[in-house]
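note to self — DONT lose this again. spent like an hour looking for the file last time. sequence + predicted structure for the chain T wanted, 293 res
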Amino acid sequence: MSVLDKRSADERHPRPEQRPGASPGAEAGDTPADAVTSAPRRSRSGRRGLPLALNAVSVALGIALWWALASAGFKLPTPPEVVSRAGTLISDGTLADDALASLTRVLLGFALGTAVAVPVGFLMGWYGILRGLIEPWIQFFRTIPPLAIIPLAVVAMGIDETPKIFVIFLAAFLACVISTFQGVVNVDRTLINAARVLGAGDATIFARVVVPASTPFILVGMRVGLGSAWATLVAAELIAAQEGLGYRMQNAQLYYDLPTIFVGLISIGILGLLMDRVLLLAERRLTRWQERR
């Protein structure tokens, strides 16, 4: 067979590695689509598994460092002591009651703070007159830590659940309202002008343009507000509380009960982390329309 005949035969019946679209590393039985799609699947699964492995390593190293410091003479309880105390508090129902009381206060204060912060932030960002009236007070109270409001809350509201929930509400509100306001202000004016050119009114622009564009900012503000709410919890439960994780930690401090304090800290951290993951999942679902890199 001549060189020309061989070349024409190869063109009529190309080998797998010569087919258009076939990758050099693809096997002979793979179609080009299989070769293209299998690699991204492997890479995506690898990207998901790596952070989880790193998280596990980080937790293990943290526990090992904690154990080493406790064994070296630092005034820290060892992990087995904390686990033993946690088992005692779980078995007698103390930990469950305290966690439920703290969760109720945090969720109620956080929900109220977010429910008020979102419309106030929208009004501040959309209407200049309301911004001028409200913003000075928001900025003023932002400079005052919510914990500093506790004495005033006790005097004005008594020593029941109201002042505890109020200071948690204030912490969540101040964090979320600023983020919502920034989200409205940062909406692309081109989108708003384009909607006006197409004949959309303020209500339509607000519902179809401003709210979707501000959603990522609102969710970030909610996550920050949730962290502030948990940070304020311990101090809020100092106000004549009879149960709660913060109350249990403060009571353990009087008896120098370090294992109980560590159980409270770890419980607050785990509950806060779980709630933050829920908000992060909601953020990913609600902002799926955004371009992600």
